[in-house]
Design the sequence.
């Protein structure tokens, strides 16, 4: 059966339910489990509601978390351009304040009864997590990192490509591929840090080792990378050995608060500070300051939020429950202030927002092109989590709701000498 929905079939009732909430027509085409359809026939976005259970998920959590649970579990699916469909769904469940009066509530109840959508809340998908204990203890931080990064190195290889770099790439004029753009990013960090042969550099949150390998191979630096993920460390050590750089690179499973073998000449933190949390930023910045010699530089590369928008990713959000437990995004001013309060002199800030949107779209393309292998290596639910989160983040960067910045600080000597070049052109040369 394939017809335009009426109030007597599933799609028609869903249409009535959404219309009651939105106060407007459905912005996408919906096909339900009984074959009925509703919404504009020529809509660019097409959503499939495969099971009635999806509606119970949304009734119990009428926000992004309910929608995410329905998608991750396979209760709903997308049969059109994924980015376009997410953009339309955001219009329906976008966190806006809805004026739900008595008439709207009545229509919602009627639609819910016709759909037999009322009942106990379904069990969340297995991929959902809720951590316990005090926030940002070393034990809890380790659990949060493990949840996200210990999904499987082979899975990440499918998504990230050969560079195995899980942070914003830099799409300069020479970058034709994701691999080119990731190489451009790590080289940009090396140049901002002023790396040269014989220097000691610490990479906090080293991931799979891409930056430390580049710093050692291209600049002759002695590099130490620390991560809380055992899977990442194992993979990074293997890459280091295969590159013949074991005499220059050391990989540790270690919290940044436990590093005690300073001083270092330079420190990079690429995509790690989002896990620290605002309350711990002073501790984080001071720990890195204390590990540097006078004249040493810190490059902090982190996602930021606008002032007054979404203070934390915690709570009942898709990101907190499925992707980055306990992650927090801070305005760039908060990050700069924490670094400066620790004693650093801020010398350069660069925004890369559009670059991250391009990077995320490239990761989504990799995942979609290797979908069957991704499901085999993890689970269909986990692959769905990554597709949803990366696509949604790409859209969020594109509309400017969040940004990403590289902040360069220097630990000036007691005399005030910084050792920094006088111009930004010289810094980047």
Sequence:
């Amino acid at each position: 059966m394939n017809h335009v929905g009426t109030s007597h079939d599933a799609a028609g009732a869903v249409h009535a339910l959404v219309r009651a909430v939105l106060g407007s027509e459905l912005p996408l085409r919906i096909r339900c489990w009984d074959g009925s359809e509703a919404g504009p026939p020529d809509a660019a976005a097409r959503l499939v509601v495969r099971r009635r259970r999806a509606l119970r998920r949304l009734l119990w959590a009428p926000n992004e978390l309910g929608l995410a649970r329905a998608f991750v579990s396979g209760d709903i699916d997308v049969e059109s351009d994924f980015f376009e469909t997410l953009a339309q769904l955001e219009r329906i469940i976008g966190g806006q304040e809805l004026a739900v009066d008595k008439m709207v509530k009545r229509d919602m109840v009627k639609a819910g009864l016709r759909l037999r959508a009322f009942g106990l809340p379904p069990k969340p998908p297995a991929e959902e997590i809720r951590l316990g204990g005090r926030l940002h203890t070393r034990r809890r931080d380790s659990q949060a990192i493990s949840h996200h990064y210990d999904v499987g190195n082979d899975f990440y290889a499918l998504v990230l490509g050969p560079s195995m770099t899980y942070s914003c790439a830099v799409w300069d004029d020479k970058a034709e591929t994701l691999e080119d753009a990731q190489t451009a990013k790590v080289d940009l960090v090396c140049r901002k840090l002023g790396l040269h042969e014989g220097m000691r550099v610490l990479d906090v949150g080293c991931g799979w080792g891409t930056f430390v390998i580049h710093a050692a191979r291209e600049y002759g630096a002695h590099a130490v990378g620390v991560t809380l993920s055992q899977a990442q460390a194992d993979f990074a050590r293997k890459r280091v050995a295969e590159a013949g750089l074991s005499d220059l690179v050391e990989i540790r499973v270690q919290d940044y608060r436990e590093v005690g073998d300073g001083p270092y000449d330079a420190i990079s933190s690429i995509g790690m500070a989002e896990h620290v949390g605002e309350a711990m930023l002073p501790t984080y910045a001071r720990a890195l300051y204390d590990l540097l010699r006078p004249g040493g530089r810190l490059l902090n590369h982190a996602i930021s939020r606008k002032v007054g928008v979404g203070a934390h990713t915690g709570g009942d959000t898709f990101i907190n429950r499925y992707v980055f437990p306990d992650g927090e995004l801070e305005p760039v001013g908060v990050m700069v202030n924490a670094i400066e309060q620790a004693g650093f002199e801020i010398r350069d800030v660069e925004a890369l927002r559009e670059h991250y949107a391009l990077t995320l779209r490239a990761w989504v393309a990799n995942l979609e092109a290797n979908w069957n292998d991704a499901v085999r290596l993890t689970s269909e639910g986990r692959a769905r989590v990554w597709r949803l989160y990366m696509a949604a983040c790409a859209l969020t960067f594109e509309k400017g709701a969040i940004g990403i910045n590289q902040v360069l600080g220097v630990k000036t000597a007691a005399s005030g000498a910084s050792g920094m070049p006088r111009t930004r052109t010289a810094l980047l040369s």
The domain at 10-114 is CATH 3.30.1050 (Nonspecific Lipid-transfer Protein; Chain A).
